[in-house]
Amino acid sequence: MPRASAGLLIALLAFASAANADDALQWSGFALLRASNGVERGPLREEKLSAQVQVGIDWTPTPFLGAHLHLLARDDDAGARRGKLGIPEAYVDANFVPAGGRLRLRAGAFFLPTSRENVDALWETAYTITPSALNSWLGEEFRPVGIDAQYSRRGLMAGATIYRGNDTFGALPAARGWSLRDHWATLGEWIPVDAEYFTSVSAENDERLGWSARGSWTGANALLQLTHIDNRADGLAYGRLFNWGTRFDIVSGEYTAGDWTLAAEAGWGPTFLIVDGVKYTTDLKTGYVLVSRLFAHGRATVRGDTFSVNDVDHHALTLAYFWTPPGHFRPGIELATSGGEHRAIIELRYSFAGH
Amino acid sequence: MRRFLLLLLMPSFASAATLVVDVRDARGAAVADAVVYALPEGRQFPPASRTAVMDQKNRTFIPHVLAVQTGTAVRFPNSDDIRHQVYSFSSAKTFQLPLYKGTPANPVWFDKSGVVSLGCNIHDRMSAYIVIVDTPHFGVTKKNGRAEVPTVGAGRYALHVWYPEMKDEPAAVPLTLAAADRKELTVTIRK
């Protein structure tokens, strides 16, 4: 684990200890069991049986100051090194209210807050068991470790991030292939790209900072958002980590009407690497549209995905239903198909919270 | 004892008048979600002991604008299938609820007049307002721009209007209401 992340973890644990049994300290999360028909390769790759536990610990002594620690444990690490137990997120927040707006400064390791799909706490998707190709990628291979500033006022928002790490961002879709799975990378984890190389959100090989900027407009029922990501990696190999220089743009939209939600995101951009002095560029494109309906004790969603590498297109269709009776359990089922492969997943999720 | 005396000073419902306010923007379009409230001259009302509800469904606060009398307790049920974390930085009431589903055990007590701007720490797109006023005589305009403020006792009032996006609060409109009066008036605001 990088020293910065370890320092953050220690700071968060110190915060938690100081807060002790205070109401300002809260923990919440879930444990899940999942069974599928088992798909061995391709974008729908999934183990027959898997389990996860995720816990968020939040310390908010005032609305103006907070700290968040996200812990994850899973039985299936998909061949990763240090992938079974770890920290997907650890950050501190400071809020200010200048000129009738809200300025939020965030420091640490965090998911970029752009997904229209991963809208629940702990960056969980509210709609399906496995997220779209776009958000599967961002969850598995992108985790800014740095500083984020976001200012919002009267429905307009502008945000910018400067971060370390993520030098290998781009390797998974470009070299391994897109996937639809919720394997959130943990800090320090090495995820296999192929038989030789790995990718890691903690990879900082060239000492170049990456950056991201975003803006959005929110109306009564609608949202439009633009995001740009540039990891400014040099494209060179460092041992078993290969830097991919990736610039990626995302356009997102969302519309809600009563119990219905329509959400869509489209992303595209080039990524490159340099082998023997020759630069090889790969074009990445992906997008999805989902329609979801919330019921009194359930939610049904249909999502269509498209994803391509150098304009070779693939598609996926996903149907999901969650039953949400009162209490802690949420059974769910998801059916997905892509390129002649079919995947069925059933999941039982137990949510918990305390303070 | 103080509360008893204040109650004696309050106008009775038997002499109630009805106030209907039509809120329009500069182009004459109806303004929904405007709060209209009548503050009596020379009188005070005791704090309310009521409960109101600000729901959250499909990542939307419902209603978008909630008007309450000072002293009202507001519950924040979460009717979504995901967690919310409601906060306010406003000076009228600074608070933050824990991350939760369902209904928190304790409501939030709004004991000071003013405007509270709500948000959710998990969902930046969520926003709503609670307008706390020192009078039980208030209403929120509907889509047609009209709000009915019932059971206003006879006497002199100052009518105020507040709207989330207005540039500046218009000057209060002085009113004199007689018993069983029904007064209709139009207020124009600058958005």
Describe what this molecule looks like in 3D.
The complex is a heterodimer of chains A (355) and B (191). Chain A is 9% helix and 55% strand. The longest helix of chain A has 17 residues, at 3-19. With 355 residues, chain A is mainly beta. A 16-stranded antiparallel beta barrel of chain A has the order 1-2-3-4-5-6-7-10-11-14-15-16-17-18-19-20. In chain A, strands 8-9 form a two-stranded antiparallel sheet. In chain A, a hairpin with a 2-residue loop joins strand 6 (145-153) and strand 7. Chain B is mainly beta and 191 residues long. Chain B has a domain at 51-133: Immunoglobulin-like (Sandwich). Helix content of chain B is 4%, strand content 46%. Chain B is built from one helix and 17 strands. Chain B has one helix spanning 2-9, and strands at 16-25, 35-40, 51-53, 55-57, 60-62, 65-69, 72-75, 86-88, 95-96, 108-110, 114-120, 127-133, 138-140, 146-153, 155-162, 173-177, 182-189. In chain B, a hairpin with a 6-residue loop joins strand 11 and strand 12. Chain B starts with a helix and ends with a strand.
Largest sheet of chain B: 5 strands, mixed
DSSP strand content of chain A: over 45%
User: Based on the structure given, which CATH architecture of the domain at 51-133 in chain B is correct?
Assistant: Sandwich
Residue windows where pLDDT falls under 50 for at least 5 positions of chain A:
1-6, 16-21
Q: Biggest sheet of chain A, open or closed, and with what strands and sense?
A: 16 strands, antiparallel, barrel
The quaternary organization reads as: heterodimer
